[in-house]
Design a protein that fits this description.
This protein is extended. A hairpin with a 2-residue loop joins strand 11 and strand 12 (387-390). The two termini are 26 Å apart. The chain is built from 20 helices and twelve strands. It is an alpha+beta fold and 596 residues long.
Length: 596
């Protein structure tokens, strides 16, 4: 559901703008119309400073050494020094004074390391070559160039050898390790500064908010007066007006209209609220549009559960959700979504039972499972027109048909609400044809309608559909143009709907693949176990645990991506949802450091 908004228009002196915006931030409920991104070099600088502060908080709070420039530089130097020492050990130290004396006399030392298979013994005859070490894998040798340059044509890449003695390199390594440890201790100690860093970030973010709001304001009376627009939930009118009246400023308030393009705040029940983040990933609805979340939530849960397809994996998700709620760790940023993870786990467990799979075990083959429950499992074949099909595949296609039909009805209702019935006649024609046709077919197949009633219903659906799709799809336009437009729309819709329905087979395919892969790991482990296992229990446990962990991870990835595609492409396309609304983002002192 989309929260009703009130539009506020503020008229104030330009000199009072900054003070007004500070007070608006104190209220924390008004979304002042402003850009969400930098609009000029000054705002870009403020944005960059705020981002740097946010990243510093992230580095300090997580002690993320991989993002600390100083730690990265020290680690790179340590790796280079350790590699240099490892190489130096193969060659040993040399007398630098003697080497320098030879170099002053015109000689040059060249160091080489080549694989043992590529070392050519004939090189010893043509070049002043001395082998230093052979370890079976590599041959390390040195060539001394005479002043005449006798080995200048040797076509092998030289090995870089540190000039410092091994003791100096080892000392450098110790110093770098000490420096890295000191940096890590410093970063750990800096956690005490988190309140200061968060305060610094919040102030920079608030400054950016005020700057963007000032830039968006309209200037009047030779720029002495600023006009600003803001929006806030209607339910907070009393509190907001009380605060505004204390400021002694002139403002107007009125119910927001769709033409004002107000920001959108979603408000749903405890179940659908868990899925609002998925709606936000696609885009918020505009103010006069339907909130898709209440429809998205149960279908995404159903799609996810079908793709996972295993009741045992549902228990893992439930346990993970509880750990995210109570634990101090944050796996892949899912801690704030622990309710969603738990909900998906419950759905996976329930659907997994109906699909008859528990950690790859076929539940329908287990004798102690109640017979009534086994009858409810979607396992086995169903014969249609002499051909047997998997019941799960038929269920997936049936879900897809219902999902698309629901989307078409929502699209027709939405257009009717926003533009009137005349503009929705064509859409209602398609709804009548597809949805009405399926309803009539279902009633006829179940013998609710007799032959005569079915014939009348088919004629009624056909006539209404033809009138809506071909004759009155654009009222007031030449009927011949309407017919041509209807034919083109028929081609696009017919081919599109067929492809959309077939897309839902992925629900069956992913669930089947996950169940089969889990069963395969069980079978491999059982084969190793044998009939009288002793030590074989160890490889059995390793294979089963590793196999199911891998299958669980792959299933989660597929169960997220494919249901999201079915929602964003098949459903949103057929429901006419565009997701071009603005998210409600009030100016406030409480800055969320996770938001950029």
């Amino acid at each position: 559901m989309i929260t009703k908004m009130t539009k506020y228009t503020f008229l104030l002196l330009s000199s009072d703008t900054d003070d007004f915006l500070r007070k608006v931030q104190d209220i924390g409920l008004i979304d002042i119309t402003r850009s969400r991104k930098p609009v000029d070099p000054a705002s870009a600088r403020l944005f960059h400073e705020a981002e740097e502060a946010r990243r510093e908080i992230e580095r300090v709070s997580r002690c993320d050494y991989s993002k600390d420039e100083r730690h990265i530089a020290l680690s790179a130097d340590l790796a280079s020094a350790e590699a240099a020492l490892a190489e130096k050990r193969h060659w040993g130290d040399v007398d630098r004074e003697q080497v320098k004396a030879l170099e002053d006399a015109g000689y040059r030392f060249r160091y080489y390391t080549v694989p043992a298979k590529k070392f050519n013994q004939a090189w010893k005859e043509y070049y002043p070559l001395e082998v230093i070490e052979e370890d079976g894998k590599f041959v390390r040798f040195v060539i001394v160039d005479h002043p005449a340059g006798s080995s200048s044509d040797f076509q092998v890449q030289e090995t870089h050898l540190a000039a410092e003695p091994m003791s100096a390199i080892a000392s450098q390594i110790d110093s770098l390790k000490d420096a890295i440890l000191a940096r890590e201790n410093e970063m750990e100690y800096r956690k005490q500064d988190l309140p200061i860093l968060e305060k610094k970030y919040a102030e920079k973010a608030r400054t950016l908010q005020r700057y963007l709001a000032r830039q968006k304001s309209e200037k009047a009376a030779e720029e002495y007066i600023s006009v600003m627009t803001g929006f806030a939930p209607t339910e907070d009118d009393a509190r907001i007006k009380e605060e505004l009246d204390r400021m002694s400023l002139y403002y107007l308030s009125e119910p927001a209209k769709a033409s004002d393009n107000p920001p959108v705040q979603l408000r749903n029940n405890w179940f659908a609220r868990n899925f609002e983040t998925l709606t936000g990933m696609y885009g918020m609805p505009v103010y006069d549009e339907f909130d898709p979340t209440p429809i998205l939530a149960p279908f995404f849960l159903l799609f996810w559960s079908f793709c996972m397809g295993d009741a045992g994996y549902g228990l893992i998700l439930i346990a993970l959700g509880m750990l995210l709620r109570k634990g101090d760790f944050d796996l892949l940023g899912l801690k704030k979504h622990w309710r969603l993870v738990t909900t998906l786990g419950v759905g996976t467990f329930v659907i997994g039972i109906f699909l008859g799979t528990f950690f790859g075990v076929n539940l329908k083959e287990i004798s102690w499972i109640p017979a009534g429950l086994r009858k409810l499992m979607l396992v086995g074949k169903l014969e249609i027109a002499g051909t047997a099909y998997d019941i799960t595949m038929i269920a997936a296609i049936a879900i897809g048909i219902f999902h698309i039909c629901l989307a078409m009805v929502i699209k027709a209702v939405g257009i009717t609400k926003r533009a009137g019935f005349k503009q929705a006649i064509s859409t209602w024609g398609w709804v009548t044809l597809v949805v009405g046709g399926l309803v009539v077919a279902g009633l006829a197949l179940t013998h609710v309608l007799n032959a005569a009633a079915t014939k009348i219903a088919i004629i009624a659906v056909g006539v209404l559909s033809v009138l809506g799709i071909f004759i009155f799809n654009k009222p007031g336009r030449n009927p011949l143009l309407n017919i041509g437009s209807g034919l083109w729309d028929t081609y696009q819709t017919a081919t599109g709907l067929l492809g959309d329905v077939l897309s839902y087979i992925r629900l069956y395919a992913l669930g089947l693949a996950g169940g089969m892969l889990g069963g395969a790991f069980n079978q491999i482990g059982t084969m190793l176990l044998g009939t009288n296992p002793t030590w074989q229990w160890l490889p059995f446990i390793v294979i089963v645990l590793f196999g199911h962990a891998l299958n669980f991870a792959m299933s989660c990835l597929g169960a997220f991506v494919h249901p999201l595609r079915l929602t964003f492409v098949e459903y949103f396309k057929n429901s006419g949802y565009e997701g071009k609304g603005l998210d409600y983002s009030p100016m406030t002192n409480e800055i969320n450091k996770e938001n950029k």
